[in-house]
Automatic annotation (TrEMBL):
Protein name (Swiss-Prot/TrEMBL): DUF72 domain-containing protein
Pfam family, one: DUF72
Listed InterPro entries: DUF72 (IPR002763), UPF0759_sf (IPR036520)
SUPFAM superfamilies per record: TM1631-like
Organism (species): Maribellus luteus
């Protein structure tokens, strides 16, 4: 993932900003659970991207990947709606506790820009519904140039999205977060419809760290820089997540990317180990013992 790439990460301040003032209010009104549901994974499972992750002789990459992690951010669905046979094949290869988090196809989000997409959305939702209990939260990622002038398109899309499927939204145009009036209108819509407000942590777009939860679910897309700071950044995230959990966070969906994706499993495994230690959780992940894998 090259979004937010910078040539020299050592020049970037990676400190997490304070929470938005309304995040505490959203968490306060959440149902209190003993422990949150936590899913951590990568964005891809193919051998080409994740060199070194698969043992020699591995024949089925998804089968092995799902034995190591409990979830996948399914970017494959961005390039085209998967067929029902494909969805059921993926579903049946994975353990009972595994979940897929599909990205809405780009025909809907980028090419048609949410306009006249009823049929396409119906097809997408029908097909992914065949993940059954293994369907996690679906997410909509919009282009950098999808601005506030298109707010009504976003509003209409969210209102027509099936209520039985969880939805998260990732917006990238700076005005969504830097213009207070625009942000307030957006956050009110997301809260009303219980849509998660995706947080992106990437070196070149620190403005996307809005730290504004609109539901008791934190959906974080973490983009490493293939730099030593990647690990300290993750530990800062663990501290923030601990605070959110103490204040009512119900769900954490955390997906690790890298500019060079082959390092993503190592980062994700490190994050899982430290998160389990700090919060007393038992999220499964690859064994870490001095060296990874």
């Amino acid at each position: 993932m090259i979004f937010g790439h910078v040539d020299n990460p050592s020049l970037i301040s990676f400190e997490l900003p304070p929470d938005h003032n309304d995040t505490a209010r959203v968490l306060t009104h959440a149902e209190q659970k003993k422990q949150p549901e936590v899913y951590v994974g990568c964005a891809k499972w193919n051998r080409t991207e994740l060199k070194g992750f698969y043992p020699r002789g591995t024949k089925d990459e998804l089968l092995y990947y799902s034995s190591q992690f409990n979830s996948i951010e399914l970017n494959a669905s961005f390039y085209g709606t998967p067929s029902i046979p494909q969805v059921t094949a993926w579903r049946d290869k994975t353990p009972d506790d595994f979940k897929f988090f599909p990205k809405i196809t780009r025909i809907i989000s980028h090419f048609k820009r949410l306009k006249d997409v009823h049929y396409l959305l119906d097809e997408f939702c029908l097909n992914i519904s065949h993940f059954e209990s293994k369907l996690g939260m679906v997410f909509l990622q919009l282009n950098d140039n999808f601005a506030h002038k298109d707010f009504n398109r976003l509003k209409d899309f969210i209102h027509m999205f099936p209520t039985g499927i969880q939805l998260a939204v990732e917006l990238r145009h700076p005005a969504w977060f830097n213009d207070e009036a625009v942000a307030a209108e957006l956050y009110a819509l997301l809260e009303e419809r219980k849509v998660a407000n995706i947080i992106v942590d990437t070196a070149g777009r620190r403005d996307l760290l809005h730290m504004r939860l609109t539901s008791p679910t934190a959906f974080v897309r973490y983009v490493g820089a293939n730099h030593p700071t990647d690990y300290t950044r993750l530990e800062d995230w663990i501290d923030r997540i601990e605070n959110w959990v103490e204040n009512g966070l119900e769900n954490l969906y955390f997906f690790v990317h890298q500019n060079t994706e082959e390092e993503s499993p190592q980062l994700a495994a490190h994050f899982i180990q430290k998160l389990n230690e700090k919060l007393g959780l038992s999220v499964r992940g690859p064994h870490v013992n001095g060296t990874l894998f």
